[in-house]
Amino acid sequence: MKALVSWPTFSSHPRRKEPQISLRHIASLATTELCDSNALLLTKGDVRVLPPIFNIYGHRRAFSGPIVTVKVFEDNVLVRELLESPGDGRVLIIDGGGSMRCALLGGNLAQIAQNMGWAGILVNGCIRDVDEINGCDVGVRALASHPQKSYKKRVGEKHVPVNIGGIIIHDGEWLYADSDGILISKTELSI
After folding, report:
1. Secondary structure of the chain in HEC code, one letter for each residue
2. Which of 46, 54, 57, 183 could form a disulfide with 141 if both were Cys (CB 3.0 to 4.6 A apart)?
3. What's the CA gap between 178 and 30, in Å, rounded?
4. Residue positions in the annotated binding site for substrate?
5. Are 139 and 119 in contact (CB under 8 A)?
6. pLDDT for residue 106
7. Residue positions forming the annotated binding site
8. What residues form the annotated binding site for Mg(2+)?
9. Does the pLDDT value for residue 20 go beyond 70?
């Protein structure tokens, strides 16, 4: 006589709405193909290539989405506030002034970003908890890792233009990232 096996079923948390992420944000278009197909936009400055200064972290190696900006310096309170809001496949760009003295993103915030549906995070500064971040289904780019946490003074600005590697980036523009590099576009791109 065969024993009946009852497999457990899993459901999402009853009070938490699961984020809806478009597949285009998970399977990002290749930056090389986007450059080749949009050469005129590159020439006009509507598509810009960020300098190759960022390291790749996070489980998601390629990602894209509309940009949300935040400008902070060695303080990540505003970063947490933004990541706790629905991501809807967006990408958070954190202009930390390139500081190498503390981390602006750690494993807890990366997990929040994953849970809230953010496609990716770019940090012009440092991160910590690298192994935890690498286990999260979110794309992360940062200058380096640093073990020290940031201050908690709530100093900074949300939704303002930021300067990353000499490239001015605005809220609502688009970011495309993969192993070959990072593109910023004024509009959503196609091949």
Report:
1. CCCCCCCCCCCCCCCCCCCCCCHHHHCCCCHHHHHHHCHHHHHHCCEEECCCCCEEECCCCCEEEEEEEEECCCECHHHHHHHCCCCCCCEEEEECCCCCCCEEECHHHHHHHHHHCCCEEEEEEEECCHHHHHCCCCEEEEEEECCCCCECCCCCEECCCEEECCEEECCCCEEEEECCEEEEECCCCCC
2. 54
3. 7
4. 106-109, 128
5. yes
6. 99
7. 106-109, 128-129
8. 129
9. no
Rounded mean pLDDT, 52-73: 98
State pTM to two decimals: 0.86
Q: Delimit the domains of the chain by residue range.
A: 23-185
Contact between 70 and 100 under an 8 Å Cβ cutoff? The reply is no
What does the alpha-carbon distance between residue 82 and residue 68 come to, in Å, rounded to a whole number?
Answer: 9
The CA-based dihedral angle spanning residues 50, 163, 160, 23, taken in that order and rounded to the nearest 10 degrees: 10
For the domain made up of 23-185, give the CATH fold.
Answer: Glucose Oxidase; domain 1 (3.50.30)
130 is written with which tokens? 């690298």
Nearest-angstrom CA–CA distance, 42 and 22: 26
For 166-184, the pLDDT digits (tens) are: 999 999 999 999 999 999 9
**pLDDT score recorded for residue 22:** 45
Compute the distance between CA of residue 178 and CA of residue 58 in angstroms, rounded to an integer. 12
* One-letter amino acid of 66: P
